[in-house]
Amino acid sequence: MNLYTAYYSSPVGQLKLQCSDKFIKTINFCDVEGEIQNDEHKLLHACAKQLDEYFAGKRKQFTLPLNQDGTEFQTKVWDLLSKISYGKTISYNELAKQYGDLKAIRAVASANGKNNIAIIVPCHRVIGSDQSLVGYGGGLWRKKWLLNHEAKYHLGVQEFNFMDAAK
Fold first, then answer.
1. Rounded CA separation 79/75 (Å)
2. Cβ-count burial of 6 within 10 angstroms (0-12 exposed, 13-18 middle, 19+ buried)?
3. pLDDT one-digit tens code per residue, 109-151
4. CA distances from 23 to 4, 63, 97, 122, 160 (A)
5. Any residues with CB less than 8 A from the CB of 48 and at least 6 apart, and which?
6. d(CA 11, CA 43)
7. Which residues, other chains included, contact 107 with Cβ-Cβ below 8 Å and sequence gap of 6+?
8. How far apart, in whole angstroms, are the C-alpha atoms of residue 104 and residue 93?
9. Residue 30 appears among annotated catalytic residues
10. What pLDDT is recorded for position 164?
11. Which region holds residue 113: left if phi is over 0, alpha if psi is between -120 and 50, else beta?
12. 96-124 as b/e, with b when 16 or more CB fall inside 10 Å?
């Protein structure tokens, strides 16, 4: 399988975009130093365009073909993440309930953390049961920024009131 890579400069830092011939496979936060080469591929261009629209507050849903490698369990959790509406948050507890097994909360949280398609598969929309910002691979400051960005365009508020993240 061919993988094509491009880097996207966003308000929350560099994103590494990867696609196969048919699917977006990865959107990860990364630190890039030095000269980088961006592959030419229509999916990478479409992804960058939709991210531009998202960051401009004009796009609330993405329409890209996605595929990331994972177990059947992880895939189901990622599908549930994709159904969390723009500007909304749910708790890990609620995500486990949606999965159908409240006892699976840790496994659900682990699958959430293994999501490799940041922003588009919105794992940033999952917060603690006490409304705290917990657990985000891109860093809690990015999670807060993304949630505030969505709150601004969805609810018209400048900053959402989150509890301080657990330290």
1. 6
2. buried
3. 999 999 999 999 999 999 998 888 888 888 999 999 999 999 9
4. 10, 11, 29, 17, 33
5. 6, 8, 17
6. 21
7. 73
8. 9
9. no
10. 46
11. alpha
12. bebbeeeebbeebbebbebbbbbbbbbbb
Provide φ and ψ at 137, rounded to 5°.
-60, -30
Count of beta carbons in the 10 Å neighbourhood of residue 38: 14
For 134, the token pair is 């917990």
Asked whether the predicted pLDDT for residue 72 surpasses 80, the reply is yes
**Lowest-pLDDT choice from 26-35, 112-121, 157-166:** 157-166
123: closest CA among 61, 78, 160, 155? 78
Of 19, 30, 47, 123, catalytic: 123
Q: Which residue has the tokens 């948050």?
A: 89
Task: Inform me whether the pLDDT recorded for 165 exceeds 70.
Answer: no
**Inter-CA distances, 26 with 92, 136, 162, Å:** 23, 16, 28
